[in-house]
């Protein structure tokens, strides 16, 4: 099956083989070595210094990392501005509500670009806001939110930035400027690992180990101090760690995030050219979308369910739109071990489905 959903991804042969590594207790030195190696490699993805930054490993999907980041890095007495232009921005607001984190949501239409003037206005109106939370690649629509202007704005207003980079870490540019306090990501999207482990890249001076945590399981200060000392507070998914180490080695061999981005762009371009010939139109202009995923309007007269099932019968899994968009769009992610030939076969499958409908 060729997975074209935004994670979990189609695994490479090497990553799949790594999943069958030896049984190992997470309290043994072999696991400590594995974890330390992964934490180092995750920082190296963006050339981050381990003196200033820490990669904190959590068992869980990307949402665990986002929740851990918001619950741990907004101090008591702080206030969060959540920027919503899709499902994942809205999820950050839900996390703030659930953990009783004082917050103000900046509600935008799904798919809309973030206007920094709106953010600036929100920061001026409420001087208590200490942190801004934003999704880098809003997977709902494929929009790549522009972080450069936002980093600059946060710098001028002396507020910290928290980033959900779950569907961009390893495949898009991320400039870890001084205002960034944390960045949440996962093993099984652009890094091509298996699902089950996520991580937060944290600016070390933003952790407050002495503050009362909002969560037992997701307190990043606890994880960081134990992981810095070769431990971990709770059981880790050992086999998923093996797979992630293998995925990171392959990632480095293939040339890092720039090469991965280029690879995705090549695949996405091949797909878009083919779709254009079939009359299938993209939701957003190319320059506003990530390299990772693109949303397209459903062909006229074809429901998502029918399209999905017909493609699945031909070994391809595409992805539905969410909420209101479910009736109008479908999404295709090019992350994972996808070959040019897979895209060509997908286009043939589309052609066959369209000629029948
Ligand atoms: C996938 C994703 C998440 C996490 O979703 P899970 O279902 O927990 O894996 C969070 N944010 C974004 C932008 C995502 O694409």
Describe the structure.
With 357 residues, the protein is an alpha/beta fold. Helices cover 39% and strands 17% of the residues. The protein has eleven helices and 14 strands. The chain has helices at 13-18, 29-44, 62-73, 87-98, 116-125, 147-157, 220-228, 238-253, 256-277, 304-312, 340-356; strands spanning 2-3, 53-59, 80-84, 103-107, 131-135, 137-138, 143-144, 160-164, 180-186, 197-203, 293-297, 316-317, 319-320, 329-333. The strands form four sheets. It has a seven-stranded mixed β-sheet, sandwiched between helices. Strands 11-14-13 form a three-stranded antiparallel β-sheet, with no helix packed on it. Strand 3 (80-84), helix 4 and strand 4 form a beta-alpha-beta unit. Helix 2 (29-44) packs parallel to helix 8, helix 5 (116-125) packs parallel to helix 6 and helix 9 (256-277) packs parallel to helix 11 (340-356). The radius of gyration is 20 Å and the shape is globular. The model has no long low-confidence stretch (mean pLDDT 97). Bound molecules: pyridoxal-5'-phosphate. Pyridoxal-5'-phosphate (PLP) binds at residues 6-7, 61-63, 66, 88, 135, 139, 164, 166-167. Residues 6-7, 61-63, 66, 88, 135, 139, 164, 166-167 line the site of pyridoxal-5'-phosphate.
Helical amount among residues, as a percent range? Answer: 25-40%
The count of strands amounts to: 14
Q: What is the typical, i.e. mean, pLDDT?
A: 97
> What class would the helix/strand composition place it in?
alpha/beta
* SSE sequence, one letter per element: EHHEHEHEHEEEHEEEHHHEHEEEH
List of distinct ligands in this structure? pyridoxal-5'-phosphate
Query: Which outline best applies?
Result: globular
Tell me the fraction of residues in β-strands, as a range.
15-25%
Report the uncertain regions. none
The side-by-side strand order for the widest beta sheet comes to 2-10-9-8-5-3-4
Radius of gyration: 20 Å
Main sheet overview:
7 strands, mixed
What is the CA–CA distance across the termini?
Answer: 23 Å
Helical segment tally?
Answer: 11
């Amino acid at each position: 099956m060729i997975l074209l959903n935004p994670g979990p991804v189609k695994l490479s042969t090497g990553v799949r083989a790594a999943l069958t590594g030896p049984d190992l207790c997470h309290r043994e030195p072999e696991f400590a070595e594995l974890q330390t190696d992964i934490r180092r490699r995750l920082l190296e993805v963006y050339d981050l210094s381990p003196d200033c930054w820490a990669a904190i490993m959590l068992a869980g999907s990307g949402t665990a990392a986002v929740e851990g980041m918001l619950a741990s890095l907004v101090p008591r007495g702080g206030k969060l501005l959540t920027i919503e232009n899709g499902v994942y921005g809205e999820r950050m607001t839900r996390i703030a509500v659930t953990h009783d984190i004082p917050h103000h949501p900046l509600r935008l239409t799904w798919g809309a670009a973030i206007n920094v003037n709106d953010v600036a206005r929100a920061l001026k109106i409420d001087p208590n806001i200490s942190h801004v939370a934003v999704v880098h690649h809003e997977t709902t629509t494929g929009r790549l939110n522009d972080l450069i202007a936002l980093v600059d704005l946060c710098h001028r207003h002396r507020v910290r930035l928290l980033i959900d980079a779950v569907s961009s870490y390893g495949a898009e540019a991320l400039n870890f400027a001084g205002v960034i306090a944390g960045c949440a990501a996962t093993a099984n999207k652009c890094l091509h690992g298996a699902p089950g482990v996520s991580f937060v890249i944290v600016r070390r001076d933003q952790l407050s180990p002495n503050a009362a945590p909002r969560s037992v399981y997701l307190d990043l200060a606890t994880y960081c101090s134990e992981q810095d000392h070769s431990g971990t507070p709770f059981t880790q998914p050992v086999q998923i760690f093996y797979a992630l180490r293998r995925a990171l080695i392959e990632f480095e061999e293939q040339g890092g995030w720039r090469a991965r981005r280029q690879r995705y762009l090549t695949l996405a371009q091949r797909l878009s050219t083919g779709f254009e010939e079939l009359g299938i139109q993209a939701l957003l202009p190319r320059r506003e979308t990530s390299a990772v995923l693109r949303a397209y309007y459903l062909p006229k007269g074809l429901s998502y369910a029918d399209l999905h099932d017909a493609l699945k019968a031909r070994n391809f899994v595409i992805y539905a739109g969410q909420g209101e968009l479910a009736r109008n769009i479908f999404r295709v992610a090019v992350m994972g071990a996808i070959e040019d030939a897979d895209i060509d076969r997908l286009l043939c499958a589309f052609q066959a489905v369209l000629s029948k409908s």
